[in-house]
């Protein structure tokens, strides 16, 4: 009898999961998406801390945080004032401050602006 109850509970769980309306997004669904706003960069204290994707943050890599783009998405970030661009890979969530659209690794930020400025105006475009 105990096995029958467990079996029925498992069957109900599988049925609920199978009927779930959770959408798995493909990176190609985002290709061409653009957004403009402010970019910031990670402080040194975050070096080697775990990101939302499970990777360890490394300020030498060209990575970034975005609130909703899928992990692994490649994004071209353009500094509006000087036209410089950098390609980054999304591996974290954030920024969670109004007006900011992306948090860049220190090396990515340095490629298109001066860290002493703290923030830069950017346009982001999903390329892959």
TrEMBL record:
Pfam families the UniProt entry points to: DPBB_1 (PF03330)
Gene3D superfamilies linked to this entry: RlpA-like domain
Domain RlpA-like protein double-psi beta-barrel, chain residue ranges per copy: 35-124
Lipoprotein listed as a keyword: yes
Enzyme class: lyase
InterPro entries (UniProt xref): RlpA (IPR034718), RlpA-like_DPBB (IPR009009), RlpA-like_sf (IPR036908), RplA (IPR012997)
Name the record gives this protein: Endolytic peptidoglycan transglycosylase RlpA
The species this protein was found in: Marinobacterium aestuariivivens
């Amino acid at each position: 009898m105990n096995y029958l109850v467990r079996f029925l509970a498992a069957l109900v769980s599988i049925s609920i999961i199978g009927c779930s309306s959770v959408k798995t997004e493909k990176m190609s669904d985002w290709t061409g998406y653009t957004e403009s706003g402010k970019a910031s960069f990670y402080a040194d204290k975050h070096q080697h801390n775990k990101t939302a994707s499970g990777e360890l943050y490394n300020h030498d890599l060209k990575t970034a945080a975005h609130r909703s783009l899928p992990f692994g998405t490649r994004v071209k970030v353009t500094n509006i004032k000087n036209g410089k661009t950098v390609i980054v890979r999304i591996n974290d969530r954030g920024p969670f401050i109004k007006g900011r659209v992306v948090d860049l690794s220190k090396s990515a930020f340095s490629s298109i602006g001066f860290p002493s400025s703290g923030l830069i105006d950017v346009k982001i475009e999903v390329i892959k």
